[in-house]
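RETRY 2/3 - previous attempt timed out on the joint model. Re-submitting the same 449-residue input unchanged.
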Amino acid sequence: MSEIKQIKNLKDFSTSADRFEGANLLCPGCAHSIIVREVLNATNNDLVLAASTGCLEVCTAVYPYTSWDASWIHIGFENSSTAIAGAETMYKALKTKGRLKQPDRNPKFVAFGGDGASYDIGFQWISGCMERNHDMMYVVLDNEVYANTGGQRSSSTPIGSSATTSPAGSISYGEKQNKKDMMGIMAAHHIPYAAQVAPNKWKDMVKKIQRGFATEGAVFINAVSPCTTEWKFDPKDTMMITDLATDSLVFPLYEVIDGREFNITYRPKNVVPVEEYLAAQGRFKHLFKDEYKYLIKEWQERVDAQWAYLQRREEAKV
Amino acid sequence: MAKKGWDEFEIGAMLRTFNGEIENIAGTRQEDRSYTENSSYTASVADWRLIKPIFNKDYCIDCQFCWIYCPDVSIISRDKKLIGIDMDHCKGCGICVEVCPTNPKSLLMFPEQADEEVEIASWPKKDEKEA
Ligand SMILES: Cc1ncc(C[n+]2csc(CCOP(=O)(O)OP(=O)(O)O)c2C)c(N)n1
Ligand code: SF4
Ligand code: SF4
Ligand code: SF4
Ligand SMILES: [Mg+2]
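RETRY 2/3 succeeded.
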């Protein structure tokens, strides 16, 4: 059961039997479920899953229904990481004591959390799990806002985005703080594997998830998850927005091994100006007013600087 | 299913997705699974839709873009071929149409009440500008 699933192309991948079900209550066009499907379908191993409170959890476990075809735990907002770390530790202990009925099934332990649950409220719990190097994967569904409670800003919300607690208006351009560099912080735990992924680049994403599953120890994944409701775009455009996110390098795709070795895994042939990414979303609409246009230039400079930094880190191999 | 009252919930609810045991879930297709009434697979969100996708297999190249990017597990592919749309679970988002690369598209959105046979009979022709 534990060899890596062979996925050479999309046709191969489409033979997967999904372990995530429809008739959940996520919005039409929500990227959370596209990400979840790519993660779950990347393996044939048994799965033990947890989710922190947030859109994914709230919409897939509405009593009397569950949308999960695997063991799935929900406790609270901040602790999908520690719930899964606990399950993994118990599993190891039972295995050592010879008390498992089927000791060779080799389940994979995965926790999902939103950016609110991960960058803010469950931050120290995740840090602990990474530092103890549990054999688990933590996946952030990064929609850069507390979507489930109506769009409050989180420490993942980028500058200039209009959120309900940092609204744009006549005296404000919206969010003022820089997005937290969660990848950098997690990599600084020197965990065996950390990666940023995007569901549009499914091959890159599945490869990283499979590498994560094959890794013994803690794995951190940050997945960009465009939110049709809070980013304010038409549900049909979720993949187009994701393409703009990766191709403008606002969400560069890369991995960090042992906290040191940086690999950029996607270099867009045609890099799209950040302005196009911003223009496609209602949350940035006000930036196109004359008085705020300077922010678009600053955005581009920040993205360029981050890309230069990643390339330097990759070259340096230190 | 029968709804429980506020004082009838168990503390710490556990829902079972399947009747009995499934030995190899990742190798068992949905149609071969014995879902309990607690699985959302047995529910429908068809009434969320105002528009719906219609699939025209004449132009389909089975690239499976629609399969991977459908958020609602509603593109039914078997043996690497697209065989239909699960209309109980499709929410009508339109992503499948946007990502379909053929010309004309093999999936298009129509009003919920549109008739599949009629629409397929009058499917748009190849768009020369795009080709
Ligand atoms: C300790 C605690 N604080 C606040 C809440 C209320 N709450 C529920 S979901 C949610 C937002 C979740 O945001 P995020 O983690 O980003 O996930 P998203 O909904 O955006 O996917 C909040 C604030 C809660 N359930 N528990
Ligand atoms: S609010 Fe956003 S994240 Fe939440 S279900 Fe809707 S699209 Fe998904
Ligand atoms: S309209 Fe949306 S939910 Fe329906 S099949 Fe297409 S992608 Fe899936
Ligand atoms: S995206 Fe279009 S061509 Fe590709 S499998 Fe779906 S319907 Fe067929
Ligand atoms: Mg969020």
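The pocket of iron/sulfur cluster (ligand 2) is lined by residues A 26-27, 30, 32, 55, 59, 143, 147-148, 227-230 (CB under 6 Å). Closing ticket.
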